[in-house]
């Protein structure tokens, strides 16, 4: 493997080479900019929520039942609101970049939103009703994110009031 390809592999894998003499013994993690990553995911969710909401309102409204359109809009709404929550979390991560709790909240929101909304979009497009059984898993993940964020703020408030 050439030196250039090997170096690119380590960058993609979030690993930085300290020296080129012995790359295996000199691996160290690169700094992760989690607030920027959270912002990117948030903006991705927000943009696609708007696009998918418009898609549901203008393109598939005549192709599916009114109940499925309502389901589609529910998916887009939850995706949008949790995209906003991720954007707020990203701002908090800038202020407290070492806080693992905020990263955990962001992961729960992202995973929950993807499972919840994607299962509902797929349900609407395919009319496979068993996909609706997956949706509550996403809902639980999203609720877990809110609960975890609440507990984090509560714990910090107690710590600050000492």
From TrEMBL:
Keywords: Membrane, Transmembrane, Transmembrane helix. Signal peptide: none annotated. InterPro entries: DUF423. It is a multi-pass membrane protein. It is found in: Membrane. One of its GO terms (cellular component) is plasma membrane. The chain crosses the membrane at residues 40-60, 108-128, 134-154. Belongs to the UPF0382 family. PANTHER family: TRANSMEMBRANE PROTEIN 256. This is Putative small membrane protein. It comes from Gynuella sunshinyii YC6258.
């Amino acid at each position: 493997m050439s030196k250039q390809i090997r170096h690119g592999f380590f960058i993609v894998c979030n690993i930085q080479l300290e020296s080129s003499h012995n790359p295996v013994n000199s691996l160290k993690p690169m700094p992760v900019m989690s607030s920027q990553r959270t912002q990117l995911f948030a903006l991705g969710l927000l943009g696609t929520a708007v696009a998918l909401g418009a898609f549901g309102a203008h393109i598939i409204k005549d192709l599916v039942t009114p109940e499925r359109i309502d389901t589609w809009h529910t998916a887009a709404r939850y995706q949008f609101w949790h995209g906003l929550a991720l954007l707020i979390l990203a701002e908090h991560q800038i202020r407290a970049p070492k806080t693992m709790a905020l990263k955990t909240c962001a992961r729960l929101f992202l995973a929950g939103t993807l499972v919840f909304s994607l299962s509902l979009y797929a349900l609407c497009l395919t009319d496979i009703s068993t996909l609706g059984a997956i949706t509550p898993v996403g809902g639980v993940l999203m609720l877990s994110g809110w609960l975890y964020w609440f507990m984090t703020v509560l714990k910090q408030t107690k710590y600050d009031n000492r």
